[in-house]
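EI: anyone free to look at a 115-residue chain?
SC: sure, send it
EI:
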Amino acid sequence: MLQVVPFPLFDRQVRFVLATLDGTVHLPSTEQMLEEIRQEKTASQAAGVSPDHFHVFGKAQWAYNARLTSMAGFEPLAPVIENLYEAISPERLNNLIGYRSQSFKIVDRRTFERL
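SC: here you go
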């Protein structure tokens, strides 16, 4: 399975950083951020995730993107991005070479069609 959809993820992260720079978002204290990381690592280990995979998002990318969006107040990703990711991921595993030759058209914020 794909681990992330990189460009939308990068877009969300850059927008969040810009929101911190323009004062839209005020970061918590260093101590609070470090405590949150400790809690996330503990939860990740309890779920059986290897410490080497702490930053592997997979399906968690959608909640992460939504959290950045909510904190900074910019437009969320269109649900069609997640829908397309979910449709393509299994095909990538089963057809590593051929999956890239597929084409899709985004119809609206929720749906896409295979061309």
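EI: The two ends are 22 Å apart (CA to CA).
SC: 👍
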